[in-house]
Write a structure and sequence with these properties.
Order of helices and strands: HHHHHHH
CATH class: Mainly Alpha
CATH superfamily: Rhomboid-like
CATH architecture: Up-down Bundle
Helix content: 55-70%
Radius of gyration: 16 Å
Strand content: under 5%
Shape: globular
Distance between the termini: 23 Å
CATH topology: Rhomboid-like fold
Length: 188
């Protein structure tokens, strides 16, 4: 039996990752409970669950669609660079980035959506080349900056109804993960 290619495996992993919020969205439409209430609620003990659940919940179909394509593309690039580092980055972005939103976010809001992971992957991929100083990592960083660098402008112009804290702390955490993992030489 032929072993699947890395590209095929990376495509399947990225697709599976973006299917999860879609499944949660569909489930939310069919259960008599509004799952969005399980989003991240800063400063509230019962809002801690939102650190883990919030990235998979979306306010509406437009919100989910807006996050899906970008998340898929960034995951595919990141997985192609390193599956192991991507797994570490996403886990830290969700837990630490979400934790920072819980501590510093607006207490009267429920933070939901995958954009914290998206901005975390942007920070991770934009800075991995700077910290690693390897040709492949630098190419990834430059490409991501060219393609998605303009998204960073939203960090300087918060919009109503958008979790600025999720974007900012996701990005910051992604940069930190890029720095922390830069010394790891085995990263496949």
């Amino acid at each position: 039996m032929k072993k699947p290619s890395n590209i095929g495996t990376n495509l399947r992993l990225a697709l599976a990752a973006v299917c999860l919020p879609w499944l949660v969205y569909l489930l939310d439409r069919f259960v008599p409970l509004d799952l969005r209430l399980y989003g991240l609620r800063p400063h509230q003990i019962d809002g801690l669950w939102g650190i883990v659940f919030g990235p998979f919940l979306h306010g509406n179909l437009n919100h989910l669609i807006a996050n899906t394509g970008v998340l898929f593309a960034l995951l595919l690039v990141s997985l192609s660079f390193s599956r192991r580092l991507t797994a570490v980055a996403v886990a830290v972005i969700i837990l630490m980035g979400g934790g920072l939103v819980w501590v510093f976010g607006k207490p009267d809001a429920i933070h939901i959506g995958s954009s914290g992971i998206i901005f975390g992957l942007l920070g991770f991929l934009m800075f991995i080349g700077i910290f690693r100083r390897e040709k492949k990592a630098l190419i990834v960083s430059i490409a991501i900056f060219i393609l998605y660098g303009s998204a960073m402008l939203s960090l300087f112009d918060p919009l109503p109804g958008i979790s600025w804290a999720g974007h900012f702390f996701g990005f910051l955490t992604g940069v930190l993960v890029a720095s922390w993992t830069s010394k790891l030489r085995t990263y496949r």
